[in-house]
DNA sequence: ATTAAGATCTTAATTGATTAAGAGCGCGGA
DNA sequence: TCCGCGCTCTTAATCAATTAAGATCTTAAT
């Protein structure tokens, strides 16, 4: 009575295991009478149904899509961008009738057995830093993989936006408004937990490809407008929170000369910068312009930002993996859009 | 070259399959030389590593925790309460080094093969309506199960708050402030998509146990204060959104006599009611008091609400399933707390 | 009466690993 | 020289199913 399998039932009834299997998976292959007797005995013995693992092994499909985040989950789910992406991916999984296996990838801890042992048919990898061992582990599994946002892996489909161009547009927007004293606050460049000023060397060595691209966009646009990038104050954050944004805001706004425009790479950070501006009694956009990124928490606050099709990115990533279509796109760049709201305005007169 | 297994490698090297298995799972059982040759050949043949499904079958563990939501995922993740719960559960899963398999349970569509086929070691069931077929399917799997919020299943651990008491406290708060003209707006009672007034019969037939309890709490408190419940206007919503709350707010506030206090069963709904009050130019809390539920989106809006330990509920549910401790609690009722903020105040003079 | 077609059930191969127990062998000690 | 021990590796059982192909037995048509 420890373990009830198909065989247990078969033995009890004096039929073959195959017959019992048919009773569950292909009822039309059996006479009604026997099938019913089988079901009764199964019930009586407390049979839990065909073992999904064995079934999965035999059928060669797991019925699940593996999802890999760079962050601790508790952390990822604090991020509106991640949630929207997740909604999209979940929609695709739902439509295909497969589960979504979220794999823990503890920050710092670089063990990856979970990837090795994951019972899945495909992987979706989101925002992994360069050289993260989990990526190698995923590729070793030789399953279909799609990468979202970063890092680009030649030979595997990629979904994301044109980061350099999006960054450039955000910067060009304030530059076009006449701003020349620019400040930047960014999160998610490195994994070392550093918070504070970052010079260009540190900026360029960022571990996250998408953020490097976004940053390159900022820089290119600034340099084209004649702004000396090396002189642009750049504050780096370890956490993507409103409080962190406020801290960056104060650091930047305490500088002399004070920036008249601040670029941030998340909306949450931008909201924090606005908090700092409010602390200092600065008028936005009269004395300070602020640009966010993602359009995930921006609307109510009237934040100018770059809108990314977050949910669509997730859905497309899912469909690529679950569609079964052999022809997979190499690099799928989805459109972004600059959304101008009340947090940006013409540069104040000097 | 189609499929590379342990056997393929074994054949190539003229060793037994067991040897190759040891090379991967217990390197100390082999001479260094042979192990290295095995690894080389594995690499050369493009071996993807020991098949996780087969491994899982043999070892008898899936390395994953199944999670069942009543809602479409895209919808569940729009709810701050769900997200917080999820963070807690994910933390527990992370600590235990297991994945979290989210099972789609399309709304309306009541197919449940995903439950039958889920390769998991245990299930966490969240907020399923009475009689949902997925619950039967889960129980049939005879795996450890913990239910969160609803429905209570005798014999299986349950985690949640004392809904009737929480509801009663929310109502008693405004009653204590002198309010007697109460209005109620609730979401998530039925699955039929109905939006509009609900009489007591419909209230009592709600499909969701927790909501029935919460509602019972409202009612008990009201009746104890001498309020005729049958006369309390009750607006039911199909969606938990701010917009829906606004609609309910208008419906309730258009009544004559106008309610001076409105109870809602989610914070999001309460925010919508506040929007409606603003539309009508009503002073809160001078002319109208509003109470939310969950404390998930309430703080910034200054909403009086019932705080639930959302994240803790998730974490505890996870630990119960993953701890391996045999002695599982039957019914774990976590403490809630009435948080009084600026959205409630003394009843206006008549 | 004969044959074919259906219905029902069985045989046996297959899915891809893990692991306890055993076998062969070289080596050190008595 | 012989014994026992440790190191490597193999044998074979096991995990729990699915399914093509074959075996029986009815039933119906010719």
Q: What layout of secondary structure does this protein have?
A:
The structure is a homodimer of 350-residue chains.
Chain A lengths: L5 H8 L3 H9 L6 H14 L6 H8 L4 E6 L3 H4 L3 H17 L2 E5 L9 H5 L4 E5 L6 H8 L4 E4 L9 E4 L1 H14 L5 E6 L8 E2 L2 H5 L4 H16 L9 E4 L4 H12 L7 E4 L2 H13 L9 E3 L13 E3 L2 H13 L8 E4 L2 E3 L11
Parallel strand pairs in A: 1-2, 1-3, 3-4, 4-5, 5-12, 6-8, 6-9, 9-10
Antiparallel strand pairs in A: 7-8, 11-13
Helix pairs in contact in A: 1-2, 1-3, 6-14, 9-11, 12-13
The first copy, chain A, binds a DNA duplex (30 and 30 nucleotides) through helix 2 and helix 4.
Oligomeric organization of the protein chains: homodimer
Largest interface, counted by CB within 8 Å of the partner chain's CB: A-B, 49 and 49 residues
Terminal Cα span of chain A? 85 Å
Number of strands of chain A: 13
Question: What's the story with the biggest beta sheet of chain A?
Answer: 6 strands, parallel
Structural class of chain A: alpha/beta
Q: Give the helix proportion of chain A (percent range).
A: 40-55%
Q: What is the beta-strand fraction of chain A?
A: 15-25%
Task: Write the element-wise H/E pattern of chain A from the N-terminal end onward.
Answer: HHHHEHHEHEHEEHEEHHEHEHEEHEE
Number of helices of chain A: 14
Radius of gyration of chain A: 26 Å
For the residues shown, what is the average pLDDT of chain A? 91
Low-confidence segments of chain A, given as residue ranges, are none
Write out the strand line-up for the largest beta sheet of chain A, numbering strands in chain order: 2-1-3-4-5-12
Indicate the overall shape of chain A.
elongated
